[in-house]
Amino acid sequence: MATAPAIETRHLTKKYRNALAVCDLHLLVPRGCVTAFLGCNGAGKSTTIKMALGMVRPTAGEASVLGTRVSDIRASCRTRQRIAYVAENKPLYGYMTPEQLMRFASSFYADWRPEVAAKLLGEYALPPDRKVKSLSKGMRTKLALLLALARRPDLLILDEPSEGLDPVGIEHLLQTIAVCSAEGVTVFFSSHQIAEVERVADRICILDKGRLLLNASLDDLRESYRCIDVTFPSVPFEREFQISGVEKIRTSGRQMRVLASRNAEAVVERAQQFHAVSIDVAPVSLRDIFLQTVQEG
Amino acid sequence: MLWYKAWLETRSRFLASLCGATLIVWFFAHHAESLTLPGPRANIYTRNVVFYSHQYLMFVWILCAILLGMGGLIRERAIGASSFTLALPVSRTRLVVVRIAVGLLEAIALGVVPWVAICLIMDSYGKPVLLSQAAFYLGLLISGGLIYFALAVMTASLVENEYTAPAVAYGITILMIVLCGNIAWLRPYADLWRFMGGDNHLNKGTFFLSGPFPWSGAIAALAVTTVLLATSVWLIQHTEF
């Protein structure tokens, strides 16, 4: 079980009446790395996470977390000892104070580190004896993060963790994610902030309309994705460049822009065959990869 | 610590209810002689303090017990806090059972404390209340009244809105009281209001409850409460969050 993936789903599907939230999802999140879960609003990220945590029942398929099948309710309950989760909504319990919440949360987890909790309480400048309902959205987010980060879990799941945080808070969060990863914690987080993802993620999963469109390491993506700008002496034929690995072609007069997920060399070779005047090959940002993948999907 | 959470969640409702209920019985005890209530003047303390304060306490107790049954996971889902609760390494059954148990204890305390107050106040006035009478009334109040608490818990397991859930629970309660009190064939079995008020055991001359405690009725009422609470647990186990 120690070598089982952190999260594994097979044919995972969730249907709400006529709406398909997650469709036949095969997701594999390896241990020991930071995996980012990207997708537009309503792509099914939170539903997938909730299914992995047993909060939502799949319509079909199954999910395992840290080697435990989610459908095994008792084992799944024990496995949650090893998971820290920060939900998309972070209102927590409005009737408790941060101090009471910390005391409450610490009683459930053997891996609770009081010194880390105290340190984070100070760093986040959270008032320990003010009711949670009177805290700002950013403060509640920080408190939710504190409750997860004060532990030393095997798996840290963060659903849009930077929502509501100021730039200082975001920076602190990203550094903390990096530290957690260095300590051997597997981090799985969903986000809309691609710049943040690029800074800390080892792997990228892109979900759109409930389907997994991409699951690759960030290094591989950076290595293989290329944007090729070509100028031809006359108007080029797009179909000549529709070769394997080409994701998108945009032509404007004698200019052509090709986005290739692999096989960039073949595109360059084809451009040379058509007597290209200039060829410019550039790496592609994660933002462009995301936009391209989602639009294609 | 789930007990601690349930207590923090309900304590303001509970303490306010407790103060309200105790104030009502204090009012009846303190003004026993000056209150002009229907019934013979004989045994004025038994009539005004024991019987009438119980009737008002019963009304307030039902209102408060319904409030104590509100909240829990469905309400947390509405405000977005259920994800934190459900991520705890605790089964849903335990989460719900602890929440119900705290509510039950509070509802029982809400009956016991005012009755203890009646006994203490009347004792201090030199007009002690018979403990057997107090226990009879308390037994009727709690055994019958917990059905309303269970009904509220079940409503809160289905309806998530902060105001809709109590409105639905109060609506069902009023409907139950009206229907069970007015439909002839239902009255002997389901008229909880009369059962809790001790109408079937009241001696209208002395205003004392007489006869044996209705154990069969109390057990039947507690069985219905158990079924309603078990249904609530089942509903939560099968709810999507």
Explain how this protein is built.
The complex is a heterodimer of chains A (about 300) and B (about 240). Chain A has helices spanning about 45-50, 75-80, 100-105, 115-125, 135-150, 165-180, 195-200, 220-225, 265-275, 285-295; strands at about 5-15, 20-30, 35-40, 60-65, 70, 85, 155-160, 185-190, 205-210, 210-215, 225-230, 245-250, 255-260, 280-285. Chain A has about 300 residues and is of the alpha/beta class. Chain A has a 6-stranded mixed β-sheet, sandwiched between helices. Chain A has a 4-stranded antiparallel β-sheet with strand order 2-1-4-5, with helices on one face. A 4-stranded antiparallel β-sheet of chain A has the order 12-13-11-14, with helices on both faces. With about 240 residues, chain B is mostly helical. A two-stranded antiparallel ribbon of chain B has the order 1-2. Chains A and B meet through helix 2 and helix 3 of A and helix 1 and helix 4 of B.
* SSE pattern of chain B, N- to C-terminal: HHHHHHHHHEEH
Spatial shape of chain A: elongated
**Range of helix content of chain B:** over 70%
| Alpha-beta content class of chain B | mainly alpha
Distance between the termini of chain B: 22 Å
Are there runs of chain B of 5+ residues with pLDDT below 50, and where? none
Low-confidence stretches of chain A are: none
For the largest interface, the chains and their residue counts are:
A-B, 34 and 20 residues
Percentage of residues assigned to helices of chain A: 25-40%
Can you list the strand order of the major beta sheet of chain A? Answer: 6-7-8-3-9-10
DSSP E strands of chain A, number = 14
Structural class of chain A: alpha/beta
